[in-house]
Amino acid sequence: MGALDLQVIIDQDSGFCFGVVYAIDMAEDILAEDGYLYCLGDIVHNDEEVDRLKKKGLRIISHDVLPDLHNEKVLIRAHGEAPETYKIALENNITLIDASCPVVLKLQNRIKTSFDADEEIVIFGKHGHAEVIGLQGQTNGEALVFQDVAELDNIDLPQKFTLYSQTTKSTAKFYQIKEELLNRGYDVKANDTICRQVSNRDRDLPEFAVKFDKILFVSGKKSSNGKVLFEVCRKHNPNTYFISSADEIDAALFSKGDKIGIAGATSTPMWLMEEVKAALEKL
Predict the structure, then answer these.
(1) pLDDT tens by residue, 39-56
(2) Which of 42, 46, 101, 248 has the most CB within a 10 Å radius?
(3) From 48, 131, 180, 275, active-site residue
(4) Is 131 noted as a catalytic residue in this protein?
């Protein structure tokens, strides 16, 4: 124990969701067998975990590279992919290792069904996010995507439309948006398609956060889910600090005997939170 004698506890509900666990397990199995594996985009929005897998032979490629690849195995991560990816793979004799999250696949199918039924589709999601690109792909890119209701102020929305959500968005915000759109007079068919493993974190994290003097929230900077959950923690404990690795710990933040909670995103590996805990205990 270090001089500050910090009491450090990790939130055991934090860490990888089952979709990410599934994708990483699948990747590690193939890496152990073949020595390398291509992955379409970062397997998870956490640089430390991506670096760990790169050392095992994971090769991250962009969508621009895929058409030039032939006769290889390529992993589709939990975020899912648009139909065009499957088309290219078929043409190039690429074996797709499909680790798409079942929750995302179900949502893709629902959006495709709505699109085939000629419904106007609006998606609450982050522009450019991998999952959202895959969802838009089910509509030939025709679905309207927005990440804040203010974006819709100057858009000529159809009077009647079907509303979906990226699976990692805030449940509370989704229902606020639904009510706002109904209040504006739109005929909205709203589909709550948010992953409950993620939304339950919104519910459980406040109870965890208030127990501690300070919270270190560990997440990759590219994680949408991490940004949402960090704000949940900070709302209930203003002494919440965002870090991506143990190297970013600022010892000046802590006082002797502080009780510190460590929480993370659904894309944060438990080993990384344990590294942060070990570093804190040495202070």
Answers:
(1) 999 999 899 999 999 999
(2) 46
(3) 131
(4) yes
